[in-house]
């Protein structure tokens, strides 16, 4: 991925900032208000700040960075956030800022930290509405790095860490770096599509489209799950308890919700 970078002798620090942004949606059919409340409660338990912290720590390890500071919070009535300040490569403990916890969380209910140019963040947004029997759970993830490291190799891990029905991915390289002769480089690796960095076995499960602005080093990919196995989308209900026509109606309802989220507009 960074073949060009390895061939170049750079002057000073690599000043490129590489940012990978995710929106991941999980869709669930919950007919009654009680089922919707139970689904939101279930999501909050499954993806609490502790589990999200583990996922982001794994991401940090995968890109070869060092955790400087972690802040996390579970919200009332729902949702969670985790922010991790990272540094490229290894950082000796004696060089840590005294305000950083180095990933060792203090024993308090609320923790706050600032973010630098290199950081990993996640926010969750469970959602339901009494007029809609389809609930959604959205995860926003941002991985921003500066220097040689890149977040692209975390794609498959992040997709597999959540029940990903609809995925929106943005990747952008900003700034520039210079070689020893002073020539500017606005990107240090070859990329034509975000899909190039997603495992083919993962891609076969989705319909995917790209909207890229190559001259600005901006890449955008949207993915929609192809097959709906209804049982996977029913909350506290067995598919065989439903009449065949009801199964079809529910499947169509789920698919319509997915298409609107994927398209970013109200269609039906």
Comma- or semicolon-separated keywords:
268 residues; alpha+beta; S-adenosylmethionine decarboxylase; eight-stranded antiparallel beta sheet; 31% strand
Structure characterization notes:
It is built from 6 helices and 10 strands, in the order αβααββββαβββαββα. The chain is globular. Helices cover 24% and strands 31% of the residues. Strands 2-3-4-5-1-6-10-9 form an 8-stranded antiparallel β-sheet. β4 and β5 form a beta hairpin. It has 268 residues and is of the alpha+beta class.
User: Which descriptor suits the 3D outline?
Assistant: globular
- Strand order, main sheet: write it out: 2-3-4-5-1-6-10-9
- Given the structure, what is the number of helices? 6
Largest sheet: 8 strands, antiparallel
Mean pLDDT across every amino acid position: 84
| CATH overall fold name | S-adenosylmethionine decarboxylase
SSE order: HEHHEEEEHEEEHEEH
Tally of DSSP β-strands: 10
Low-confidence stretches: 1-5, 106-116
Proportion in β-strands:
25-35%
The tally of structural domains comes to: 1
Say which CATH homologous superfamily is assigned. S-adenosylmethionine decarboxylase
| Overall CATH class | Alpha Beta
Q: Return the CATH architecture.
A: 4-Layer Sandwich
